[in-house]
Amino acid sequence: MNYTVMIPAAGSGQRMGAGVNKLFLKLGEKPIFIHTLQAFERDPLCSGIILAVKKEEEEEIQGYLEQFNILKVRSMVEGGSERQYSVDACLEAHTEGGVVLVHDAARPFIKRSVIHDLAKEAKQHGAAIVGVKAKDTMKLAPTGTVEKTMNRDHLWIVQTPQAFRYEVLKEASERAKKDDFLGTDESMLVERIGHPVRIVEGTYDNVKMTTQEDLAIGEILLKRVLQEDEE
Ligand code: CTP
Ligand code: MG
Q1: Test site for ligand 1: of 104, 109, 213, most ligand atoms within 8 A of the Cβ
Q2: DSSP structural state of residue 3
Q3: Residues 114-139: pLDDT tens digits?
Q4: How many domains does the chain have?
Q5: Is the pTM of the predicted complex or chain greater than 0.90?
Q6: Which domain holds residue 77?
Q7: What is the pLDDT of residue 131?
Q8: What does the DSSP assignment read for 149-196?
Q9: Nearest to 126 by CA among 100, 155, 93
Q10: How confident is the model at residue 229 (pLDDT cuts 50, 70, 90)?
């Protein structure tokens, strides 16, 4: 079951504090975003990649795509000032329907089995996202005083990829545009048009490279991945 993946890579990585787009920082020998793209480049079910980038970074990114032989990028579009606008730009470049995934360029440790579970669930139900169960006890405390302890079994920490049948995401995106609604993930847009969103259990190592600590964790995870590849 094939899918297209849309990868927003047009952020600036403020929280990483590196002074450059964090996606160019190296994990092992490759920039973060190249690890992410390779997960899809190597997945036979991925039929194409649509990448949102900043105009001024396009040339540098193109250079890396050539250097690492990434061949599946079929459109590079200009990202927007918010992540959602970058995903909108990707959506505009895709009209073929089918299952579309949205995945942060900053999550290089996505596993193929999770991608496949997700794509299958989205094909069947229209919308599915990857999440992991909260490990810690979770409290609701909107004013800083505990109101109640949440049932941990009901709470999910969600990640990307998030997967949709094209027409579901398209409708959600158009409605958000019309209402001037800005969400923190695609699922929020789909939830607000009343379409159910399934959760697929993912892995804790699908970390988003956000701050310096994540880079240190990323180096450890990468060593593990390379070891597994050798075995
Ligand atoms: N992103 C994007 N367009 C934006 C903002 C973010 O395409 N206007 C992308 C980032 O490049 C990243 C993903 O969305 O791959 C997730 O965003 P995040 O981790 O928040 O990255 P940044 O926005 O770059 O980092 P920060 O919020 O710390 O500035
Ligand atoms: Mg951001």
Answers
A1: 104
A2: E
A3: 999 999 999 999 999 999 999 999 99
A4: 1
A5: yes
A6: 3-230
A7: 98
A8: E--GGG-EEEEEEEEEEHHHHHHHHHHHHHHT---SSHHHHHHTTT--
A9: 100
A10: confident
